[in-house]
Design a protein that fits this description.
- It is a single chain.
- The protein contains 16 helices and 23 strands.
- By secondary structure, it is α/β, with parallel strands linked by helices.
- The site of nicotinamide-adenine-dinucleotide has 26 residues, from helix 8.
- InterPro entries: Ald_DH/histidinol_DH (IPR016161), Ald_DH_C (IPR016163), Ald_DH_N (IPR016162), Aldehyde_DH_dom (IPR015590), MeMal-semiAld_DH (IPR010061).
- Keywords: NAD, Oxidoreductase.
């Protein structure tokens, strides 16, 4: 059985403790085992990080950027292998897996500009002979705890910014698809980073708690489900750390009566079902405005959804692949049962789906639910599967209210030809990322990513200047240089606050 090991101080480290099985979701077979680490393993990683971080922090930013440039080139050269490895453990199709790597790579590209973005502020003449300047200094050792659904992109969101800013970084990826994060760390070393600058420790709650409690880890970035995000946030902050913790989502797509419905259906097919719906920026709720819009949309959605091709993750013709684990497949099907029990109409039913020749794979067929209402549990909670729910809104006001009142506030989209309605919606909706005729509005790497409400705890976003803020602290220097003329006029006096 293939073993996935920790990556500590530039090399593999197996450990002797517990291990966790890594599935191939397309075949339903266990393809590897990953080591589950503990506090002692984390101590080893922290010790290695402490050895190299001070030197890295004072390495000039242009030299740090050179490592990022080489890393970028190595990722490009290894794109196909990374995507295939990712696809085989996660289940998303290979093209989608390339997108996962690509969106992370874009943050690395942004990090290549670190000398420019790290420049501080300077005021000449804040007082007589007094200048003031600020600098951004790294926190020291940062850690990232990441979810299964973007095993390349989310680690790169975090360590790209953290390391470029002068920190060492310890990554604790999801135990469900751990191989790509290790491969990224190997490539980073190959790019010229010192051993111990980027390390990977695997594990579950035991390792997460060790990270949260470790006195030498100064900043923690978490992405995952909301209850755990909240837990990580509270425990980390209680321990005096800087923490940002992104949580779950239930993104809505508002469809105005004037929208181009063919375009909307096409967008929804990708945004609701791509990656089997296992995206925090998926669009699992569609809100047509007015009964007529709802009926017309439903009529077009049914054949589009029935026509989706579900396949193994390396099938180039598949629209989407299996979900990540058998437990997750069972949970999604239970949510469809729950929705039906609550009175939703199951228009297209993906339960019990079986792929010929791959009967043990974790496949869920595409599902469409209509007449879903805000009172239903299946609407309030995240399903994270290939399930699209139609919630009919009477008017624009109700369409603004639905995503605004939802517990999650990650992303939202509006489809319309009316610029005024779009502008009004974007300004008023209580959600962090908004798309106007863009179904998955993940901001580009030089903006930043972050939801609101229970989709994010903490007050800085991922990547861009927000990411830089998170991974650095500001130091401000106020300086006065007397001319030393010797006549006593510049003699130091005890300063007063005046
Ligand atoms: P998860 O919360 O189960 O796991 C996330 C991380 O937490 C993993 O590294 C896991 O090992 C660790 N973990 C699991 N149980 C833990 C516990 N009891 N205590 C401490 N740590 C624990 O999430 P997941 O299923 O891997 O990922 C899917 C979730 O992530 C969805 O809710 C999705 O919406 C969310 N997500 C959010 C964003 C965002 O930016 N808001 C992005 C991607 C995914």
């Amino acid at each position: 059985m293939r073993q996935v090991n920790h990556f500590i101080a530039g090399g593999a480290s197996g450990g002797t403790g517990r291990r966790h099985q890594v599935w191939n979701p397309s075949t339903g077979e266990v393809q590897a085992e990953v080591a589950l680490g503990d506090a002692a393993m984390l101590d080893r990683a922290v010790a290695a990080a402490k050895k190299v971080q001070p030197e890295w922090a004072i390495t000039n930013p242009q030299k740090r950027a050179r490592v990022m440039f080489r890393f970028k080139e190595l990722i490009e050269a290894n794109m196909q292998d990374l995507a295939e490895m990712l696809s085989s453990e996660h289940g998303k199709v290979v093209d989608d897996a390339k997108g996962d790597v690509q969106r992370g790579l874009e943050v690395i590209e942004y990090a290549c500009g670190i000398p420019q973005v790290l420049k501080g502020e300077y005021t000449v003449g804040a007082g007589p002979g007094i200048d003031v300047y600020s600098m951004r200094q790294p926190l020291g050792i940062g850690a990232g705890i990441t979810p299964f659904n973007f095993p390349a992109m989310i680690p790169m969101w975090m360590f790209g910014m953290a390391i470029a800013a002068g920190n060492a970084f310890i990554l604790k990826p999801s135990e469900r698809d751990p191989s790509v994060p290790v491969r990224l760390a190997e490539l980073f070393l190959e790019a010229g980073a010192p051993e111990g600058l980027l390390q990977v420790v695997h594990g579950d709650k035991e390792m997460v708690d060790a990270i949260l409690d470790h006195p030498d880890i100064a900043g923690i970035s978490f992405v995952g489900s909301s209850d755990i995000a909240h837990y990580v946030y509270r425990r980390g902050v209680d321990n005096g750390k800087r923490v940002q913790a992104m949580g779950g989502a239930k993104n809505h797509g508002i469809v105005m009566p004037d929208a181009d419905l063919d375009q909307v259906v096409n967008d929804l097919a990708g945004a609701a079902f791509g990656s089997a719906g296992e995206r925090c920026m998926a669009l699992p709720v569609v809100v047509p405005v007015g009964e007529d819009t709802a009926d017309r949309l439903r009529e077009k959605l049914i054949p589009a959804i029935e026509g989706l091709r579900v396949g193994v993750s390396n099938d180039p013709d598949a629209h989407y692949g299996p979900v990540v684990t058998p437990e997750h497949k069972a949970r999604i099907e239970q949510w469809i049962d729950t929705a039906e029990g609550e009175g939703a109409e199951v228009v297209v039913d993906g339960r019990g789906f079986s792929l010929q020749g791959h009967e043990n794979g974790f496949f869920v067929g595409p599902t469409l639910l209509d007449r879903v209402t805000p009172q239903m549990k299946s609407y309030q909670e995240e399903i994270f599967g290939p399930v699209l729910q139609i919630v009919r809104a009477a008017d624009f006001e109700e369409a603004v209210r639905l995503p605004s009142d939802h517990q999650y506030g990650n992303g939202v989209a509006i489809f319309t030809r009316n610029g005024h309605a779009a502008r009004e919606f974007a300004a008023r909706v209580n959600v962090g990322m908004v798309g106007v005729n863009v179904p998955i509005p993940v901001p580009v790497s030089y903006h930043s990513f972050g939801g609101w409400k229970r989709s994010a705890f903490g007050d800085t976003n991922q990547y861009g200047t927000e990411g830089l803020k998170f991974w650095t602290k500001v130091k401000t220097v106020t300086q006065r240089w007397p001319d030393g003329g010797g006549d006593g006029s510049n003699a130091f006096v005890i300063p007063t606050m005046g």
